[in-house]
Amino acid sequence: MDMVLIGGLWLSGSVWDGVADELASLGHRPVPVTLPGQGDGAVSATLDDQRTAVLAAVDGADGGPVVVGHSAACTLAWLAADARPDRVARTVLIGGFPSADGQPYADFFPVTDGVMPFPGWAPFEGADTADLDEQARRAIADAAIPVPEGVARGVVRLTDERRFDVPVTLVCPEFSPAQAREWIDAGELPELARAKHLDLIDLDSGHWPMVSRPVELARLLAACA
């Protein structure tokens, strides 16, 4: 099965290399997406540009693909389900949750000179980074690409209620399935609360399992397929 892989903020498609190798060995076709503004050299990309790139990968897949979003890009995976509810076989959301209609995509950190740079590791100390050694931290930070303001502050638009029919798997790395269920029941994750087919799966890792546990993550994704 084809698997469209979408990295979160500051990440290019190359962050999936280890996962992609393992998926290929398991008989799947990985399709890592290099998002506009996050690896193609563009600095004026918008959220709509990134959505268009994801949809191009979905439309170019062989059959109905699994669409995998990481962190903030869980919203991009959800936008794909909204735009292609009859084509996306499943969304897999890793360490993040889809924003609702009308919300900003990822306005989390300061914007400087039109981009949102990687803020360093201080905001992520704790469970997010507990499984990253210094070499892994350095590699992520060195490769981090400032996210264009038009992406980070773009407004999410969802239009098709059939997105709730698309099966969803929420991979819980730095938080537990029990915590995620509490957030859903409390009304904090309204899009997931309305999903008709939602599975919660634990993964003992930090926020970047494609770096810290690529083989385990790939096998989990294969099982989702």
From TrEMBL:
The keyword Transferase does not apply. Pfam families: Abhydrolase_6. It comes from the Bacteria. Signal peptide: none annotated. InterPro entries: AB_hydrolase_1 (IPR000073), AB_hydrolase_fold (IPR029058). Residues 4-219 form the AB hydrolase-1 domain. Keywords: Hydrolase. One of its GO terms (molecular function) is hydrolase activity. The keyword Hydrolase applies. This is Alpha/beta hydrolase.
